[in-house]
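Translate sequence into structure tokens.
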Amino acid sequence: MAIHTQQSVSGFIASDPQLNYTSKGEPRFYARVGQEHFRREGDGTFTRLEPTFHDLVAFRATAERAHERFAKGDNFVAEGYIHPYKTERDGQSTDVEEFVAKKIGHDLARTTYEVDRTRRTQAIVEQDTPTRAPADRSAPEHVSARRPSPSSEPAIGM
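Result follows.
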């Protein structure tokens, strides 16, 4: 089976995030986001260019979670798609686009944070407990297996 891929965007939250609601009552997250750009010079150094700014939106539960967790200045990575549309400005029809994030999280290459797994661990335990008989081999073993937490002991490679 082929790997499922989607478009992605990374950058920083450039405006205060907003949570509003669509005409159908669904939560909608909106933020203006920025992307930094660099040009590689012949000597191997990089020159910082002007950032570009874009609209990012998310809907439903993703919108609510994004609004709870993101603030202006946060670095993020999002998966989704570009939604082009037309808008009217000063009597002129203009082509614009926004990135619709289906999934969004902090950019761990640029963000320091701690992960709280208590809720997720409890949900996994509750989900696995009720009906699975020991002899049931219908699901591959790796589906419900969790990686052990990294050891704090030093690793030795050869």
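Note: Helices lie at 60-69, 118-128.
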